[in-house]
Amino acid sequence: xxxVLAFFRxxxxxxxxxxxxxxxxxxxxxxxxxxPTGQAEAEPRPAVPCEARRVPISxxxxxxxxxxxxxxxxxxNQAQPGDTIRVAPGTYRESVLVELPNLTLIGQAAGxxxxxxxxxxERENGxxxxxxALRFEGFELRDYTKNGVLVQSTSNITxxxxxxxxxxxxxxxxxxxxxxxxxxSVAIGASDTGIYVGQSQEVTVSNNEATQNVSGFExxxxxxxxxxxxxxxxxxxxxxxxxxxxxxxxxxxDNVVRGNRIVGNNLANFASEEDIVSSVPxxxxxxxxxxxRTEVTGNEIQENHSAGIALISLxxxxxxxxxxxxxxxxxxxWIHDNQLEGNGTDPDPALTEAGLPGVDLxxxxxxxxxxxxxSQGTRFPPVLPGRSWPNxxxxxxxxxxxxxxxxx
Length: 408
What we know:
By secondary structure, the chain is α/β, with parallel strands linked by helices. It has a domain at 189-407. It contains five helices and 33 strands. The chain has helices spanning 2-28, 72-78, 314-317, 349-353, 391-407, and strands at 63-66, 84-87, 90-92, 96-98, 103-107, 115-118, 125-129, 134-137, 140-142, 147-152, 155-160, 163-165, 170-175, 178-183, 186-188, 193-198, 201-206, 209-211, 215-220, 223-228, 231-233, 237-242, 256-258, 261-263, 284-289, 295-297, 300-302, 307-312, 334-336, 339-341, 359-363, 371-373, 379-380. A twelve-stranded parallel sheet has the order 1-2-5-8-11-14-17-20-23-26-29-32, covered by helices on one side. Helix 2 links the parallel strand 1 (63-66) and strand 2. It is elongated and about 70 Å long. The protein starts with a helix and ends with a helix. The model is unreliable at 1-25 (pLDDT under 50).
């Protein structure tokens, strides 16, 4: 009998040591960095031909008037840096290329009408700009096949009071640029994104409206972007904050999504199958994927049928890909003080097939150091880490969730 008791004591001691080692692993074993695991698998997207010119600013800036029947492009070609081009209400059937810096293009309003740039379903882009210090405002852009406005590889750009209505893949598109302001504009019916910021820094997107697009607003591989006081409704997804592979810029850092209304984004996804956004489920308010240190606060997020705010890994969108040239996890997000109501009531089948429920707050266990402070809303998992949680507890909880995700 004495030997049997000794055996069971030894067995219990061993079990205790195993349990202690397991707890130590969950809580204290170092978390490996979220580093790239491979090379890019595709060439970077080609830029639209545009070459910024270096021309001294005019000492005697002038104003050029364009009237119906005239050409905005001809006015741009005649201008000097510092000039202002005013365009009277009317329809202008053309694409405009701006390679000259320090220009102002103003659409004049009269009798409720404004100048309309139309692609007639044939031209690719409404306005392409690669020169610095452009102010473009007061225009409507319609029926292009690629972009309403394309800002690329430049800085100090202001897009204001524009309407991009069914302009192809994107409404207003800023890429590889810095110090861009997009404000007071409307984007409708883009097959990818209404208002897009890609591979850019120091961009402010404020007081805009996006509706009937696949994605209302997207911040992609960009840093220090502030998305504030916008209205996103009737899209497939309201706001995307993404890092995607195979691009020149590899990270997204320190973006802010604040004070926006993100309501009823339940439109069926109509993106082309070759576009990455075709994989985004309908009914998403805000989706953060692989971006780091994103703050989401003070937003009204309602009636998005799949999820109000969702944080996922890049691996969720590319389940068959083995290696990535970017980090795949969403890290350091701070989700707090949002108004959440009525989200997740009828989730997209793609969500339920992935084993995820429809909720206001959804975390796919991507990144151990994300934090929530929300008094409202349903959530999955039922407990979301707060900022006051010590790091060892965050890590242990995150690893436990990963184990449950793996074995259930």
